[in-house]
Amino acid sequence: MPTTENTAARNAGKTGNAGKAGNTANVASAMKAPGVRVDGLTVVYRTPAGELPAVRGIDLELPAGTITGVVGESGSGKSTLALSLLNAVQPPGRISAGSVEIDGLGDVVKLSGEDLRKARGRHIGYVFQAAQNSLNPLKTVGKQLLDLGRSHEIEDLRGLVRDAKDLLGRMGMDGARVLDSHQHELSGGMRQRVGIMLALVLNAHLVVLDEPTTALDMITQANILRIVREVHAERGLTTLVITHDLGVVAEVADRLAVMYGGRLVEQGPTTDVLSAPRHPYTQGLLRAIPRLLGDIGEARALPGRPPTLGTVPARGCVFRERCALRMDVCETEEPPVVVRGPSITACHAVAAADAGVDTDTTAGTATAGADAVPDAAHPAETADAPESAGAGEPAGVQGTRGEQP
Ligand SMILES: Nc1ncnc2c1ncn2[C@@H]1O[C@H](COP(=O)(O)OP(=O)(O)OP(=O)(O)O)[C@@H](O)[C@H]1O
User: Fold this and answer.
1) Ligand 1 pocket mutation, candidates 79, 86, 260, criterion most atoms within 8 A of CB
2) 271-291: pLDDT as tens digits
3) Which of 45, 68, 135, 257 could tie 183 with a disulfide, CB 3.0–4.6 Å?
4) Are 316 and 221 part of one and the same domain?
5) How many domains are there within the chain?
6) Where is the composition biased (Low complexity) (predicted)?
7) Is residue 144 part of a domain?
8) Are residues 208 and 104 in the same domain?
9) Residue 131 belongs to some domain of the structure
10) Has residue 291 been placed in a domain?
11) Same structural domain for residues 28 and 111?
C-alpha cells in the first residue's frame, strides 16, 4: 500500500515549477478527506418533450471521511447525481441549477476545461457503472495506467506503477501480472478491483463508486466491499457508493440517502434509516427484500413502477402514485423536509404524524395522521399499499401519468 505521503510527493513532484504553485496547494488540500456539499442540484436531459429533470433540487452533504450510500430503483437518478459530483454529465444532459462544493476544489459545477480534467482523477476518483467492461480491450492494464499517468502529467511514472502494484497487491492480486494482462484475461471481480485501483492511484481523496458490485457473485461482492471499507479507512477517503442494493449500503455505508424519481426522499445514518425507516418508499424498499431465514413469502414487492423522465410528476410528491399514505396535499405541494436528529425525510404524512395532525387520504385506503403513519420499527406490518393494487399499478396511478414538468 503506498503511503499518502509518497503518493502526494510523487504527484507534487510534477508541479515543481512556479507556474503550477496552485496545483501544489490543491494537492496539499487533497491529502485529507474532503467534505462535499450538494445544494439545490438539478440535472435535466433534453428529450423530444423538452428538457426534463432526472435529478431535482438535491441537497446532500458527504461529511469528510464518511462512506455515503445512495440507493433507489433503476432510473431514480443515482448515476446522474454521481456524475454531477465530477461535473461529468454528458449531453443531452446538463446541470441546470445548484452547486457541488468540494473542500479544496470549490464548486465543481463552475469548473471547466483543464481545471475540471485535472480535478477528475487527482481529486475525485470514479469507478463507473459496469467498470468490469470499461477497460480498453486492446491495451494491457499497465498501458492504460501509463496513459492515465501521462494524461495527468505525472512525471514519476515508475512511482505510479509501483503504487498501482501496491494497491493491486493490497486487493489480493499479483500486481505485476495484472498490469501485464488484457481485460479478457481478468475475471469480473479482478476487473472491478482494477477499476478501483485506477480510481485511487492518482491519490484522489473523494471516491465515487457507481454500482461497484453489480454482476459479481456473492463471495466476490463481499470481498470487494471489504476492500472498499479497508481502502477507505487506510487512505482517509470520503466515499460515495451508488447502488440499487440495500444490502451493499448496509455493509459499507455510514450514511444512507434514498432517491426516488430524481428526488432525495430520506437520508440519515445507515443504521437509523434501515432500522427505523420513516419514508413510505424506504419502508417499501425494505419490505421487498427477500429474507434468507424465516418466512420467505414475507417479502412484498413494491406495487407499481418507478416513474420515467416523462411520467415523473412535476408538482407535489413524486412517490404519491405508489404511496398508501397519500393525501390531497401530496398532489400539489412539495413534501416538507422533516428533520429528526441526524435524519431527514421529505414526506407530508411523516410531517403530519410528527405534528399530530389527523389527515384524510384521497385514496381512501389508509387513514393518514399519527395513527396511520407506519410504525417505523415494524414497517413490514403496516402501511401496505392497497391489496387490490397487487403487483401492478396501484389505485390512482393513471391520474398523473403523462404529466410533464
Ligand atoms: N443520456 C440520457 N438521455 C436521456 N435520458 C437519460 C439519459 N441518461 C439518463 N436518463 C434518464 O434519467 C433518469 C435517471 O437516470 P440514471 O441513470 O441517473 O438513474 P439510475 O438511478 O442511476 O438508474 P440505473 O440504476 O438504472 O443506472 C432516467 O429516467 C433515465 O432514463
Assistant:
1) 79
2) 999 999 999 999 999 988 766
3) 135
4) no
5) 2
6) 362-396
7) yes
8) yes
9) yes
10) no
11) yes
What distance in angstroms lies between residue 189's CA and the mean position of ligand 1's atoms? 25
Q: In terms of domains, do 253 and 312 share one? A: no
What pLDDT, in 10s, does the model give residues 20-47? 233 333 333 345 899 999 999 999 999 9
Quote the CA–CA distance of 49 and 44 in Å, as a whole number. Answer: 12
- Is the predicted ipTM greater than 0.90, yes or no? yes
- Do residues 326 and 252 both lie within one domain? no
The torsion angles phi and psi of 333, rounded to 5 degrees, stand at -105, 140
204 shares its domain with 322: no
Residues 242 and 363 in one domain: no
User: 254: CA distance to ligand 1 center in Å?
Assistant: 25
Short-list 377, 388, 394, 319, CA closest to 349: 319
Q: What pLDDT does residue 151 have? A: 87
CA-nearest residue for atom 16, ligand 1, is 77
Could you tell me the residue range of the domain that residue 375 belongs to?
Answer: 296-399
- Distance CA(256)–CA(71), nearest Å, equals 8
Q: What is the dihedral of CA 46, 47, 50, 52, to 10 degrees?
A: -70
Tell which one of 41, 45, 73 to mutate to probe ligand 1, the residue whose CB is within 8 A of the most ligand atoms: 45
> pLDDT by residue (tens digit) across 200-257?
888 889 999 998 887 778 888 888 888 889 889 988 999 999 998 898 999 999 999 9
| Residues 20 and 165 reside in one and the same domain | yes
Judge contact between 133 and 94, C-beta under 8 A: no
Whether the Cβ atoms of residue 177 and residue 141 lie closer than 8 Å to each other: no
- Cα–Cα distance list, 181 to 37, 176, 223 (Å): 39, 9, 21
What distance in angstroms lies between residue 137's CA and the mean position of ligand 1's atoms? Answer: 26
Closest-lying ligand 1 atom to the alpha carbon of residue 259 = 21
Q: What is the CA radius of gyration of the chain?
A: 23
Which ligand 1 atom is nearest residue 129's CA?
27
